[in-house]
Specification:
The protein is of the alpha/beta class. The chain has helices at residues 6-9, 20-30, 49-60, 73-87, 101-113, 130-136, 156-162, 184-196, 253-264, 272-283, 286-308, 335-346, 372-392, and strands at 36-38, 96-99, 119-124, 140-145, 166-172, 200-204, 229-234, 247-250, 323-327, 348-352, 363-367. It has two domains: 6-46 and 287-392, Alpha-Beta Complex (Aspartate Aminotransferase, domain 1); 61-284, 3-Layer(aba) Sandwich (Aspartate Aminotransferase, domain 2). It contains 13 helices and eleven strands. The longest helix has 23 residues, at 286-308. The relative contact order is 0.17.
């Protein structure tokens, strides 16, 4: 048969796409093994019944045909109002494109920012799909490492060193996988680099409703940055609507105009009944988002309390998002080896830090996504395993 294209064949770079342990854990569960899974950012609650009722109402009312490719006007307007309130910058309907989830938004945003062969910066550690998303548009991913000692905050000097010749910079705060929430000095440093090197900034803000310490500042809120920022948002995390695949890009109108053309030739929009449900979800206000986020703050505390009672594992306390990154190097294992052995011996699945870049090596990411009693059991197994390995090392 003909050979698949080099571009599609090379999305994962030199090999593993970062998800092999997740696939193995799911295969074990499918075979009937009782795995406690702390891998992906999937809520342990379903989408709220009232949102599902609105989705059903919209579907039975006839919103099952082609929807407007840019998104239904009422939802675009609601997102624009949300962005305006968050940033202080005036967004209108022409600044918003509704996308099939945040991942599609990241893909489209890089298409808008980069030509084939362009250098596209991203912060390391990064969400596992980021490099492949950049390669998918023909650009070259250039990781910029952060340090645990600096709270995994991007440092201006490192960005400045990587920026010459780049076209874009992908940032993510609150951050997956580290839980870092970028402070004002970090954001100002990013802004200085973006301005000095004329970079597009693609700001992944899908965890903006999950902040435990400090506050989330949208990058487009910084002076002069809205005109060079493509903000990606989603209802997946804020409203437990992961499977609904409903996100957006907020950007200058001339960029959105071109992205609508891209959507016309790729996704052709998002089902209308899902958009109607998303609009309803947004009208429920911050109280509904806080209720979805509350279990993750509680489970974060469960991890921190256990960390205080032992000397093997350590962590930079996450300021946001639904994960904790644990440093496992005192066990003598890499993050990948730790995660593999934990799954085999204890039937607990976590993501190896190496799935998220070189700066996350020697760590594992724990998703705070099981009900409290099962989460406590998984943590107990994990910490006991780590202690035993450290003693044997």
């Amino acid at each position: 048969m003909p050979r698949p294209s080099l571009q599609i064949s090379g999305l994962t770079g030199s090999g593993d796409d970062g998800w092999s342990l997740f696939y193995r854990a799911r295969a074990m569960k499918a075979a009937g093994q009782p795995v406690l899974e702390l891998t992906i950012g999937e809520h342990d609650i379903g989408t709220d019944q009232a949102i599902l009722d609105e989705m059903h109402r919209a579907a039975t009312a006839g919103h099952t045909g082609y929807a407007m490719v840019p998104g239904i006007p009422s939802l675009r307007r609601a997102v624009a109002e949300r962005m305006s309130a968050a940033t202080g910058h005036p967004y209108d309907i022409e600044n918003i494109l509704i996308t099939p989830g945040g991942q599609a938004g990241l893909f489209a945003a890089h298409h808008a920012a980069c030509d084939p062969g362009d250098r596209a910066l991203l912060i390391d550690p990064y969400y596992a799909t980021y490099p492949g998303t950049i390669r998918a548009v023909g650009a070259i991913p250039v990781p910029v490492a952060t340090r645990p000692e600096a709270g995994f905050q991007p440092e201006e000097a490192a960005l400045t060193a990587a920026a010459p010749g780049a076209k874009s910079l992908l940032i993510n705060s609150p951050n997956n996988p580290t839980g870092a929430v970028y402070g004002m000095e970090t954001l100002r440093g990013i802004a200085r680099v973006a301005e000095a090197h004329d970079l597009w900034v693609i700001s992944d803000e899908v965890y903006d409703s999950q902040v435990w310490e400090g506050r989330h500042v949208p990058f487009a809120a910084l002076p002069g940055m809205a005109d060079r920022t493509l903000t990606v948002g989603s209802l997946s995390k804020s409203h437990a609507m992961t499977g609904s695949r409903l996100g957006w890009i907020a950007a200058p109108a001339e960029v959105i105009e071109r992205l609508i053309t891209l959507a016309t030739h790729t996704t052709y929009g998002v089902p209308g009944y899902i958009q109607e449900a998303g609009l309803f979800a947004l009208t429920r206000g911050p109280e509904a988002e806080a209720a979805v986020a509350a279990p993750f703050l509680r489970r974060r505390q469960m991890v921190l309390e256990r960390l205080d009672r032992q000397q093997v594992l350590s962590a930079v306390p996450p300021s946001g998002a639904m994960y904790v990154m644990l440093d496992v190097r005192r066990t003598g294992l890499s993050g990948a080896a730790f995660a593999d052995a934990l799954l085999d011996e204890c039937r607990v699945a976590v993501m190896p830090g190496e799935s998220f870049g070189t700066a996350a090596a020697g760590h594992v990411r724990v998703a705070l996504t099981l009900p409290d009693d099962r989460f406590a059991e998984a943590l107990d197994r994990l910490f006991q395993f780590a202690t035993a390995r450290a003693c044997a090392a």
